[in-house]
Design a protein that fits this description.
single chain, Rossmann fold, 6 strands, about 15% strand
């Protein structure tokens, strides 16, 4: 039987935004306040956890795929202690204007791949992101509930819910899940 998921963006949601740069090493990765509690709640309520992230630092050759994999392995190891690890991690490492890229947000491809791999029910799923491209990705995949974490990114796309930061995310999710 299909289960619902909560799909998360990474930088600015799971971890503190690195600003205009990139998280290139595990030492530069810092979990956002309250995010582990939110992930744990999702898991306890029976939701799959999916990470859908754009990481063009790999495409720009600022880091290798192995560097990105190491960051995600360390993140998963830390989350595992709280039973809050992701069921799937999908990363688009393409450059912004790379011809032939089909996975870059706002494309729904990363979500659709996770849906196929994990047998997800997107009609009962949620998405949490901090940029228009995240919210649009969820909408393009048919995810009915989108949550925007406010950021420096200007936005024109309306999310279902908006929070000033990740501190109140678990409280909102308690009501929605």
């Amino acid at each position: 039987m299909s289960r619902p998921a909560v799909i998360f963006d990474r930088d600015g949601v799971i971890n503190l935004s690195p600003g205009p740069g990139y998280v290139l090493r595990w030492e530069d990765f810092h979990f956002s306040p309250g995010i582990i509690e939110a992930l744990t709640l999702c898991r306890k309520r029976g939701y799959a956890l999916v990470l859908a992230t754009s990481q063009q630092g790999v495409g720009k050759k600022l880091m290798s795929q192995a560097d990105l994999d190491h960051i995600h392995e360390q993140m998963q190891a830390r989350l595992r202690r709280d039973h809050a690890e992701f069921d799937a991690i999908h990363a688009c490492t393409c450059l912004k204007n790379e011809p032939g890229c089909t996975c870059r947000k706002p494309s729904a491809e990363m979500i659709l791949r996770a849906t196929s791999d994990l047998d997800l029910d997107l009609t009962r799923s949620l998405l949490v992101g901090d940029a228009d491209r995240d919210i649009e990705m969820g909408q393009n995949a048919g995810v009915p509930v989108t949550i925007r974490i406010e950021s420096e990114n200007p936005h024109q796309v309306t999310a279902t819910h908006t929070l000033p930061d990740t501190l109140g995310l678990a409280t909102l999710l308690e009501r929605l899940l």
